[in-house]
Fold this protein.
Amino acid sequence: MIKLLAWFSRRKGNGRRGGRRKPAREDDEKQDGMSSSKAFLRRRVKLSFFTVLFATAVVFICFYGQAPPATRSLLVGTIAPKSVYSDQTFSYESAEKVINERKALLRDKAQYDRHKDQEARFIEGLALFEKGLSQNLSEDDEGLGSANLDLANELRESHEIDFTSDVLAAFSLVRGNAERQIIYQKIQRELDKLHTKGVLKNPSEFLRFHSEDNATKALATKSYEIAGSLLVIGGVDEGLGLLLLEVEDFPHLNDLVQTIRSDENRTVDDFSLSELASESEDLNATNEARDLRQQMASAFTSLAIQGLVLREYNEEKTETVVNREMEVSRSKGEFNLTVKEGERIIHKGHEIIPEAREKYTAFLEQTGSEETLFPRRILLTCATFLFALLYINLVLPEFWRNDAKRAIVAVAIVSNLLLSRGVLELGGTDLFGGNPLFVALLPYLLPVAFAPIVVMITVGPRMAALSALMASVFHAAMAGSEVESLAISLGASLTGAFFCRDVRLRKHVLRAGAFAGLVAAVLAVSLGIATGYDLWITALQAGAAFLTGVMTGALVTGVLPMFENMFKVTTEVTLLELTDYNHPILRRMQMDAPGTYHHSLMVATLSENAALAVGGNPLLCRTCSLYHDIGKMVQPEYFTENQGGQDNPHLRRNPSMSALIIKSHVKEGVEMARRAKLPEVVIDVIKQHHGTSLVRYFYYEAVRKSQQTKLPLGEKEEVDESTYRYDGPRPRFKESAIIFFADAVEATSRSLKKVTSRSVEEMLDSIFAERLDDGQLDECALTLEEIKLIKKSFSKTILNMLHARIEYPELEKENGKAKKDREDDKAEGGDK
């Protein structure tokens, strides 16, 4: 106790500010001249560069290339929640008029190519057919069928015209060459008339063209007319009419023709097929005449249709013509609309039509043009960063000294804004931008809670609150700079951060995201009801907000290990996972070094309670304590707790060799931890848990041997204190210092002959005074008050761990059975 009080006196009178110990690097900076104005300026320049780079990235991500925020809440067909009036006169080009005009031009000015070569090829095929058919008809009738078939096959190959058997039969019935020429000419004229106007496959919007169906009907009508005009009786040579006598399917018609021909008193010389069908008194003959006419017409139609050539759409020519017409109209200002100052753009309570929404969008673009909007965004960014700098300097000045935390905050916010910008850009794509409902949901699809949750878990609550504010401001600016958007973003962000306090399981991160989404959904519903917005869309927005919150939690769960590995930070989640006693290293320690394992458990209990007393991280202390002595598993038999009553191998070693073996467990532990990919903070504790303290037992043993005069040759050695000191470094943070003391206290407490409050306090005073006097805490920011609280916690824990038990009374044996003294029933019960 006297030593400790003396040390306190020295510490208070050494000229330092009371309360906080300065880290060793501050002393090193003083020794190296780092406190000079040049070093100070260099650090300030570095921080300024970091801040400017961060702000530039935010501006670039949020605002570069982004169109002025239009109304994402006004959908065509919904009821306007408020009226909007123009505060200035402006003109704009109406996209609706442009679209409608372009559609009209595409319909009216569409360019189609006419394939005259295909038309001429068909006419040429008809001429060859007539020539061949005339030659075949002039020959014997016996070979007419095979000759016509050969002719049809030849033309099918050369001109791709299919002369079917019906076509061949129909034309073979027409014996007169003049009659056949008339048929060909009429078919050609009808085709030429159709081709001149143009025939399209489906010209529903192009009224100046024939459709293929209408052209086919026109050919069928013409063919029926041609068939009806064929002469059956009369003509230049009555014998060259239709060969009806050879047509066995029309007996009544044949009889009628023969009767008319044999009538010498007839007053009409010529009878066409249609006249026979209409003037005959014989009903059977009339029906046969009509059937024959229909068969002939069908044959002519099937041939004529093959000569029908559709026009082909020429997109390049059409675009050229349409663009030329559009430029002419644009130069005349036909697409421009003018809005007068005071004109109502949106009428509250009325249905929003496309023209009104377009006018409102133009109004927003006019009032938020790039010339005026970008400077405002720069000003907003500067104001936000100024507030952040003031907040950090007032509340978290130590934040500037931690490069990892600065990087985490910057990367988290930038990543969040990148994700949100990507979602917003979907509204400008052809796939999603044309869907007004999706555009209305966009502000509620932004993962606004991503950065606050990440910062809350990895850095802390104060920076998480600042990250929530910054991210919300920039999200609101991207979404439309509306106060409602800021309120929803900030509420969701702070809720997500709140539910991530003391998070130790990954499922808790998902829960935090769900609560953030729930708050955003509630705020969305409240806003929709307050503004009278469409209830169905409001419900969809609330659902989108909730699902986005859940997905944000899942996303954070996935990327959290990346942040830990990238910036060498350890979260409560990882620490809790490492406390699993089934971890391979802990399982191995239980088997190979059970004494060390038990010692680690005791150190974990001591340090965890002490951390709670001084406001440290108890989970960090417990986790690091479990792994601080893993290096002892390499040679466990050299450590007293693992010897189990066996021979002490140190008896066969000189003190320096024993000290080297003892010290090596730190280095071995670090290597083992790195191979197991344990967090850096655990590795730091392994390095620092002995500081640069002295391995006193072997040091004093070496000193004792060096002072003896009668030693065997070779056993006497010079004692160098550095040989018996751990390599360090000394503890550099609060939790490391707690474990540093807990390790020594637990080991020393095993040697107490009698565990009393006084003996424990004397032990603690001795350990603390000795190590403080040795300068082991010169690199750690522990205050004297915290040291006092740590000692108090250690004392309480040691007394509870090493509590005494009452002695059980001896058993007496009577008649071969165990029997207790009757007075035991009156004695006080002990620990059973």
Summary: The radius of gyration is 51 Å. Residues 112-313 form one domain. Residues 1-34, 236-241, 812-832 have pLDDT under 50 and may be disordered. The chain has 32 helices and twelve strands.
